[in-house]
Design goal:
The protein is α+β, with helices and mostly antiparallel strands. It is built from 6 helices and 11 strands. It has 2 domains: about 5-155, N-terminal domain of MutM-like DNA repair proteins, CATH 3.20.190.10; about 170-295, Orthogonal Bundle (Helicase, Ruva Protein, domain 3), CATH 1.10.8. It is about 20% helix and about 20% strand. The protein has a 5-stranded antiparallel β-sheet with strand order 2-3-4-8-9. Strands 1-6-7-5 form a 4-stranded antiparallel β-sheet. A hairpin with a 2-residue loop joins strand 2 and strand 3 (about 60-65).
Length: about 300
């Protein structure tokens, strides 16, 4: 599943093309991709057609396009969702295209954004915006200006801030860890505590600070929490620089190109290979219907 770096790469690619653009037409090719759209809001096509997009904003793994009327188009990529920028005359024979937004941009002219989703776990929806609970900027947009900046879609309001968010509170995060006896990896994956970190980047961050995934979160000292946050930010930042992680063709940026951070992974997917730090064979262990990857020597559980 795309995690923070992958979604941010998509957001950054969309932003120049959608900001200030008018939605001239909408094609819904598969209504299953609107499963999170509340029909009480009205017809998706009618709500979006004619709207002007103010920005492309992200919190954690959610992406939204504010429309200037206290509403936004909210996107979640799910397992295989893609937001692809295309020319208006791009062939329309992609069998995995689910929704198409036809745009008229004041600088770039006519464009098209295709929501492509092979497995249909992702979705688009129109959602109402509401003020952020803390009064801070709702998410990362590159430019935090305009009336939409401190408003967040109701579907995203329960999602915690991510470690790259300027309004993320290190102290609040440390306090949350101190109240949880569960393993630290479970806490890192809890989007109500911290968003944007999925299985890949949790494994990489825990390897970086030599923490066992099942080490109780409440057992971490203040120093260890700071080290962990530093590692998370470093891993996410490096993944962003390298365009995210692509193990298959299901994650690509808006131009259809894959990221290459998988070549820099130290833990995830390296079972049986030598630990880059000590040479011990890495192990893969069952974890919440997924897997954890760690070094059995460097990442021992401490009493």
């Amino acid at each position: 599943m795309p995690e923070l770096p992958e979604v941010e790469v998509v957001r950054a690619g969309l932003a120049p093309a959608v900001t200030g653009a008018l939605v001239s037409a909408v094609e819904v090719l598969d209504r299953r991709s609107l499963k999170r759209h509340d029909p009480v809001m009205g017809d998706f096509e009618r709500l979006v057609t004619g709207a002007r997009i103010d920005a492309a904003v992200r919190r954690g793994k959610f992406l939204w396009l504010p429309m200037g009327d206290a509403r936004a188009i909210v996107g979640h990529l799910g397992m295989s969702g893609q937001m692809l920028l295309r020319t208006p005359d791009h062939p329309g024979d992609d069998r995995h295209s689910r929704v198409r937004l036809h745009l008229d941009h004041p600088e770039h002219g006519e464009l098209r954004v295709d929501f492509v989703d092979q497995r249909i776990f992702g979705s688009l929806a129109v959602d109402r915006m509401q003020p952020t609970a803390d009064g801070e900027i709702a998410g990362y947009s590159g430019e935090a200006t305009g009336g939409w900046a401190r408003s967040i879609p109701s579907q995203v309001s329960h999602i915690a801030r991510d470690p790259l968010d300027p309004a993320f509170s290190d102290a609040a995060f440390a306090a949350q860890l101190g109240r949880r006896a569960m393993g630290i990896k479970r806490v890192l994956l809890d989007q109500g505590v911290v968003s944007g970190i999925g299985n890949i980047y949790a494994d990489e961050s825990l390897w970086a600070v030599r923490l066992h995934p099942e080490q109780p979160a409440s057992s971490l000292s203040s120093r260890r929490v700071r080290e962990l946050l530093g590692a998370v930010r470093d891993v996410l930042g490096r993944a962003l620089t390298e365009g995210g992680t692509s193990f298959d063709a299901q994650y690509v940026n808006v131009n259809g190109a894959s990221g290459y951070f998988e070549h820099s992974l130290n833990a995830y997917g390296r079972a049986g290979k030598p630990c880059p730090r000590c040479g011990t064979a890495m192990v893969r262990e069952p974890f919440m219907n997924r897997s954890s990857h760690r070094c059995p020597k460097c990442q021992r559980r401490r009493v």
